[in-house]
Write a structure and sequence with these properties.
- The structure holds two protein chains of two kinds.
- Chain A is α+β, with helices and mostly antiparallel strands.
- In chain A, about 40% of the residues lie in helices and about 25% in strands.
- In chain A, helix 2 runs antiparallel to helix 3 and helix 3 packs antiparallel against helix 4.
- Chain B has four helices and five strands, in the order βαβαβαββα.
- The longest helix of chain B has 25 residues.
- The chains are: A alpha+beta, B alpha+beta.
- The interface between A and B is medium-sized, with 24 and 22 residues.
Chain lengths: ~260, ~120
């Protein structure tokens, strides 16, 4: 039975750190869990980096999101309190504004009211699935969604997105408007990658990038350039790996390439 | 034939606590990864627990007083073992009975006998 050495342990710890999973109540267990998985794969004859990649594939992409939610529950509660406080403040402001307008209405056109209300409503109504391709011009999908033979590991695995063949540096565009949720780098997986949240249901992920032009919290519109094609993760040639995540589940992106 | 393992879906999630309690009743103390392995093995590969479902469930069971934990060093890393409390042992019996009742009722619902 193989046991990981200190250096290998350290590199796994670092990956958890990259994922933002290096503190909180699950930290030690997740580390042990990943280590066990890697050790088992190495017992089966794999090299460390192959074993690690295989473990990460099932680990990070499956329910990492859920784990992160579990971690951030406390801060979410705080955020929700903050939200309630600010909503309250906003409604007070609105009431004041409306009353103010009522008083003024005899003399003036009511201008302030509708403008104050508009942004809130449009935010609530913002429900935007992706409707364009992340690359322009003639695009070639080299690997579809679903079960496939993994190009590096040579085993049957679920492909969670689609791959577009494209030259290094080809611009990558946001497929719908939204907020940039993650700008990350995982050299042994997605490489440089961006996640955009479009609404309560849809997120898109762009991976293997050579360049990333946005940062977390940026607002993007459909068709904005967010980065460029590369081969920065576990990849054999420049390509764009693109995922569409609907309600936390990966769906076939080919269904969302056009309106 | 290739059987696609059932990842922690809604059905499995609803029974996760029963599965954990039962595993611990059978095997004494266990750590998370060991549970994933055992579930895979005992279900002939049909069930695949994911970390995202397993660990929050384990922590909830500890918070509810059904499990206790103990830590051990494995080389340079910490391993956390879980074990049933007396309350947990009782809860396990109830949960297993409840589930068996559920399965029988579902079978009646899904395979109604032709009227005679």
């Amino acid at each position: 039975m193989i046991q990981l050495n200190e250096q290998q342990l350290f590199s796994i710890e670092k990956i958890l750190e990259e994922q933002g999973l290096n503190d909180g109540p699950l930290k030690e267990e997740l580390l042990d869990h990943l280590c066990c998985q890697v050790e088992q794969a190495m017992d089966g004859g794999m090299l460390f980096h192959q074993a690690l990649q295989q473990s990460l594939d099932t680990f990070q992409e499956d329910e990492m999101k859920e784990l992160q939610q579990h971690f951030s529950n406390n801060s979410n509660q705080k955020r929700s309190i903050m939200m309630k406080v600010s909503l309250f403040a906003l409604s007070v402001l609105l009431l004041v504004a409306i009353n103010f307008n009522r008083n003024e209405i005899l003399d003036q056109e009511p201008v302030e009211g509708p403008e104050l209300v508009a942004p809130i409503i449009s935010h609530v109504l913002l429900a935007d699935p992706p409707t364009i391709s992340p690359l322009r011009g003639d695009v070639k999908i080299t690997s579809g969604f679903g079960m496939r033979l993994h190009p590096v590991h040579k085993v049957k695995k679920q492909h969670k997105g689609i791959d577009f063949k494209a030259a290094m540096g080809t611009p990558v565009y946001a497929t719908s408007g939204g907020i940039v949720k993650k700008v990350g780098n995982m050299p042994k997986g997605y490489g440089k990658h961006i996640i955009i949240e479009h609404d309560d249901h849809f997120k898109t992920l762009y991976a293997q990038l050579s360049q990333m032009d946005v940062k977390v919290g940026d607002e993007v519109k459909r068709g904005d350039q967010i980065g460029a094609v590369g081969s920065s993760g576990l990849s054999t040639a420049p390509h764009l790996h693109y995922e569409v995540i609907k309600d936390g589940v990966r769906v076939d992106p080919e269904e969302y390439l056009r309106p | 034939m290739y059987i696609c393992p059932m990842k922690t879906n809604e059905l499995l999630r609803g029974t996760l606590k029963t599965i954990i309690l039962n595993l611990l009743a059978e095997h004494g103390r266990m750590y998370g990864y060991e549970m994933v392995q055992k579930v895979r093995e005992q279900s002939a590969g049909a069930f695949e627990l994911t970390e995202g479902a397993l660990y929050p469930a384990l922590h909830k069971l500890v918070a509810d007083g059904l499990l206790v934990t103990e830590k051990e060093m494995i080389g340079k890393r910490v391993r956390k073992y879980y074990r049933l409390t007396p309350v947990g042992s009782e809860a396990r019996i109830d949960k297993v009975h409840e589930f068996q009742k559920f399965v029988r009722a579902m079978q009646l619902l899904l395979n109604p006998k032709p009227a005679t």
